[in-house]
Amino acid sequence: ARLVVLVSGAGTNLQALLDACADPAYGARVVAVGADRDDIEGLERAERAGVPTFVKKVGQFSSRDHWDRALADTVAGFDPDLVVLAGFMKLVGEEFLGRFGGSVVNTHPALSPSFPGMHGPGDALEYGVKVTGCTLFVVDAGVDTGPILAQSVVAVEDDDTVEALHERIKVAERAMLVDTVGRMAREGFVVDGRRVRFGRTSS
Ligand code: GRF
Fold first, then answer.
1. How far is CA 52 from the centre of its chain?
2. What Pfam families does the entry give (predicted)?
């Protein structure tokens, strides 16, 4: 399967996918990496792996919709089977979802439906939950609201800082992402309402 991965930062989730794809049995290949900003480590990781990269900054476009369309056009050019938002800090819009909807997955560092948005680990710490974790879901028009593919639980320690907790979540997140994307690539998946089933038929 052809993966296009979108990043906005360190790209450790991307790196986990790049490493997994090195095994031909994994069943997927990262064909391009896109970002909404320059000089981030995620782009350097792609370049080191010899993967084509592109940057689409919202500010370069006259409107958010124009950005969304330009992003969709560039991604479409790589003919992806799956688009993976791995630490991508922008919401893709109607045009993008219209083109790839159902084949866009996103990883979120909290147990959905708890703590959606930009500060999942901090919100979990603030709330005082004893367990949190990460969620891989199929992107829909909401914020972190799509049908859930996989989740992984991480304990919150008494002395946790947001950074320490997020780093621990990211360990689980990388494993969840690699395992689930690989399964989707090899077996296919079908979204049926809020349910997602692996396999290629909807029977
Ligand atoms: C991940 O935890 C992702 O879920 C969140 O930000 C982090 C990105 O990490 N949105 P990286 O860029 O993959 O290292």
1. 18
2. Formyl_trans_N
In short, whether 170's Cβ falls inside 6 Å of ligand 1 is yes
**123 has a pLDDT exceeding 70:** yes
* Any ligand 1 atom below 6 A from CB of 31: no
Residue 119 CA to ligand 1 centre (angstroms): 11
Q: What tokens does 77 get?
A: 């050019």
| Separation CA 120–CA 115 (nearest Å) | 5
CA 151 remoteness from chain centre = 13
Backbone phi, psi, residue 189, to 5°: -155, 155
Q: pTM of the entire structure?
A: 0.96
ipTM: 0.96
What is each CA distance from 53 to 30, 123, 182, in whole angstroms? Answer: 11, 32, 22
